[in-house]
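2024-03-11 09:14:02 DEBUG pipeline.ingest accepted 1 chain
2024-03-11 09:14:02 DEBUG pipeline.ingest length=483
2024-03-11 09:14:03 DEBUG pipeline.predict start
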Amino acid sequence: MRVVCTLVAVAIVLATGLAWSKVRSLENGILHIRSPLLGSGGEDGAIDILLVGMDSRTDAHGNPLSEEELAQLHAGDDVSTNTDTIILVRIPNNGESATAISIPRDSYVQAPGLGKTKINGVYGQTKEDERMRLVEAGISDAQADSESTKAGREALIETVADLTGVTVDHYAEIGLLGFALITDAIGGVDVCLKDAVYEPLSGADFPAGWQRLDGPQALSFVRQRHDLPRGDLDRVVRQQVVMASLAHQVISGKTLSSPAALNRLQDAIQRSVVLSEGWDIMDFVKELQKLAAGNVAFATIPVLDESGWSDDGMQSVVRVDPVQVQEWMKSLLNKQEQGDTEELAYTPAKTAVEVVNDSDINGLAASVSQVLTNNGFTPGPIGNHEGGHVAGSQVQAVKADDLGAQAVAKQLGGLPVIVNASVRPGTVRVVVTADYTGPGSGLDGSDPTAATMDSAAGTPTDSDAPAPSPIITAGSGDPQCIN
């Protein structure tokens, strides 16, 4: 998450005529690592870039952060090397779009040498196991640390490849400090919260509404997961919104107009970023320049249970199915290649839903409206249906293929979509009659708050096969207000 915005920034600077020697200087100061697990790019239909945000208390070169920096970042005393952020960026071979795919940190996965475990611990647990083995074998502490770090990275790369079914081609890693420094260099980030939050563990203390965050504030914003309705999944949405906002600022040309800002960015990258060896930054910059129109989307892998438990019943985890994830990855790539950007960029928040009651059941419209609001749709007016009775429960829209109408109809159990020219574009009207037995009716036997989003188009799915949060885009202006 934290690296792709930086690379986009470099691309835009290049596009405005910055000397290539400046970028070469930037690249020469970055720590590069080698892994035999990385592909050569594009063999499976896309260039796949694994971006990892480390919960580390050192910089990219292993130097400890100062006490002042740790306090500013609300880093605490934990010295683990867990991976707080795992994002796979897919750029199809046609180079016309990109999708940044989040993997929740608590995803319960099969990892080499570890069995089933949370994916955020694969790097750190493998590293520590290997470090102890090397030290016991008489290897020096410095060499053991270096070799074990390499083992941790490779275990994570292999785990992500096995989960998603893709060949990881490039690897980028950044720590806590780097994210804060890069955000400050770009000029901060604009976000919008539905409600005020105060959560001292992460340092999150923000009012409701729109606000601009500096680097340390943005770090607290994307690290909070306690006291959020969906925990880790809501944190993933926050990370995506911040990434989209930063990318949009850079893409729109509003930032990095001064040499001083660029120098701050270079210092932040060289201190904090690790990149895989053999990755020609110039080639990637050219690919990013093709995306300057903002054709970048942000999504989350489908999940089975966001509040599941490990096999031994000892840990709260996010349950995922590798087969489902891999099928979704393939379908996502197909949509990118076909240029199906409208569906890719759709989110329920783009649709305002009016719900009217055409029955004698008190409170039915309000209950159905709450179901839709819980699933990300923008609430509209609630009331009684005026005029003659309709034949049955239905979703009305200005056109039959309206994405919002289709999403609402699916959420409510497959209601028919009826064309009504009086409904405004971007709005749908739900008419519920006495025959309605879907979510919110109290007759479907399900928890209406348990419905989740279909990853490909932001549409809800059945609760026994949940999928991820809505896709967010970087090129459409301000991000939506979130939890």
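2024-03-11 09:14:41 DEBUG pipeline.report The mean pLDDT is 78.
2024-03-11 09:14:41 DEBUG pipeline.predict end
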